[in-house]
Amino acid sequence: MMQGKVGRIPREKVNPLTKIFLYLASVCAVGIVVSPVAYWICQWLIGEGWLQMLSGFPFHRYFTRTLQVAALTLLVPLVFWLRIRRIEDFGIQRNEQWGKELCIGFSAAFACLSLLGCGYVFSGVYGLRDSWEWSKVFQILATAAVVAPLEEIVFRGVILGLVSRAFGTVSGGIFSAALFALLHFVKPSKTDLGDPVTWASGWEQFVLLFSGLPPFPVSAYAAATLFFVGLFLAWTVVQTRSLWLAIGLHAGWIIAQQGLNGVAKYRAVPKDALLPWIGESVVSGAVPTGLLPLGALLFLWGGIFLWLRKR
């Protein structure tokens, strides 16, 4: 179990949680202010015959890329501000069994969600598609290879490690899981705000970040799934002092879920007709909803718990 009040550090003038919130606020502020400037500069370069590949790109793409660049750039001063000098400060240690944990996590997650998906298909909840582009297999594998390590490094490495370092692993697990769930619903609107782009355009895009939120109660079940997954993955990192098991689990979930979406389609009409047991997968089809997938994840958690206990 997660142990509270572990690894506390002396009190600072500005506590680490406040610093993290200031970091997130700074990323948003940079995105709001800089995105119009980036758009104007690129439009001028396009007019001069440069960067023709960006011709016709809508403003929301500039806003999204600006947020991403700001998040990566400002992460460096945040780490120094938090006095992080080595990876052990995040609660992560060298793991000689990284390959074994990666494979077991992947296999267990893939098998669990694949069995759940087969149950959906045989019960008629999902219907097989007439055709499927097999070229998407590479896309799914690439998504798992990039998204799983990246999100685990950010949420279970940096955020969990920083908050746990200041307030204990229980607080760190809850905070990282809540932030993990929240940020999955952040999706810049593709609404055309019209020309011309002004200084206010960045703010107009910012207030639309949650415009793609699924309708209630599907959104509530999706949030519950994401929060539960965040807690589960945080627990594995605390138990193993490593990200490899979490990366394997995350990658297995992505491939199984995206594979189901590729070969089958949710059939219930209306979409929430089978809730609270099963709902349509949301957030680009990556997040299953309902009590049944939550039960499957709980069963998987129990299996991982028994494996780690024996080890």
Question: What does this protein look like?
Answer:
With 311 residues, the chain is mainly α. It has two domains: 12-83; 93-194 and 210-310, no CATH class. The protein has nine helices and four strands. The chain has helices at 16-47, 59-81, 98-123, 136-167, 169-183, 201-206, 218-240, 244-263, 291-310; strands at residues 126-128, 264-266, 279-282, 287-289. The strands form two sheets. The protein has a two-stranded antiparallel ribbon. The chain has a two-stranded antiparallel ribbon with strand order 3-4. Strand 3 and strand 4 (287-289) form a beta hairpin. Helix 3 (98-123) packs parallel to helix 8 (244-263), helix 4 packs antiparallel against helix 5 and helix 5 (169-183) packs antiparallel against helix 7. It is globular, with a radius of gyration of 21 Å.
Domains (count):
2
Strand order of the largest sheet: 1-2
Helix content: 55-70%
Strand content: under 5%
Going by helix content, strand content and strand pairing, the class is mainly alpha
**SS elements, strand count:** 4
Give the helices and strands as they follow along the chain.
HHHEHHHHHEEEH
User: Mind describing the biggest β-sheet?
Assistant: 2 strands, antiparallel
What is the count of DSSP helices, taking H or I runs of 4+ residues?
9
Mean pLDDT: 86
How would the global form be characterised? globular
The low-pLDDT segments are 1-10
Distance between the termini: 15 Å
Rg estimate, integer Å: 21 Å
